[in-house]
Amino acid sequence: MLADRLFAPDPGGAFPEIDSLAWSLTIGVVLLMGAVAWSFARIKRRQQQMELAFRRQEAAHQQEINDIQNRFLTNLTHEFRTPLTLILTPTEQLLAEAADEHQRKRLTSIYRNAHHLLRLVNQLLDLSKIKTGSLTVHLTEGNLSEFISQTVQSFQAAAEQRGLHLAYQGCLKNQYIFDAESTGKITYNLITNALKFTRPGGQITVDLQEQTEGIRLTVTDTGVGIPPAKLPNIFERFYQVDGSSTRPHTGTGIGLSLANELVRLLNGRITVVSEEGRGTTFEVTLPFQPMGVPEEN
């Protein structure tokens, strides 16, 4: 019988049939484990390939969506700019000729609101250009401190109308090489944000100082502040701390995002420190060099 053969020892006391069977089983188990491991590895590689293909497809799809959005914004802004310009130019001429005070007030209201819309359209266009890499830096030589001072002065009437005290404390010793357009937009948006969220009787301070790595522009307000949970998102495009339809402050969520993007375009950095109920400080560092000082690589 088979059992008798398997369990029958040889003359030396060994069990050759059992040893042979055990060796065969061992080899079989090893081969089976190898086959299973190879199958799992193949399945894993296939899964990774599918995940990679899916991520690439998602990235391509997202890029296509971004391209469509950028083209839409660019076309939309161009479509808006033309009629707004056609409104602003004759309105400005009528303002210069108007003698009646009531008529001047109405024309001023038309001009102010049309100009506000044009600025909003230009901000959207700037964001679109930054996204596509078509917005470039244009450096000029001049009095940076005086340039910022004039920007601050342009807000004095609006600050007084809101019952706010707006002060400028910058005084640079040197003339600077800087991008006037981008710097003006950064300053404009930071002051606009401060005006919007500072209650009557509050203080807004704009400071400009020289430092080793360039200049530091600081805009500080005594406004409502930003909740800590909202700070990480404050520079996101179209983000608003209060996004409800009943929020007390108007806005589109473009200004701070544009300021942040322009700072990055100029190879600078922007930080924000805020305490809810006490105010906010935005600090911008820009690598502008004094005239006559070679720029470091």
From TrEMBL:
Gene Ontology molecular function terms on file: ATP binding; phosphorelay sensor kinase activity
SMART domains membership: HATPase_c, HisKA
PANTHER family reported for this sequence: HYBRID SIGNAL TRANSDUCTION HISTIDINE KINASE C, TWO-COMPONENT HISTIDINE KINASE
Domain of life: Bacteria
Keyword hit for Ion transport: no
Transmembrane domains' residue ranges: 20-41
Annotated Histidine kinase domain residues: 75-290
Protein name according to UniProt: histidine kinase
Enzyme Commission number: 2.7.13.3
Keywords associated with the record: ATP-binding, Kinase, Membrane, Nucleotide-binding, Phosphoprotein, Transferase, Transmembrane, Transmembrane helix, Two-component regulatory system
Reactions it catalyzes: ATP + protein L-histidine = ADP + protein N-phospho-L-histidine
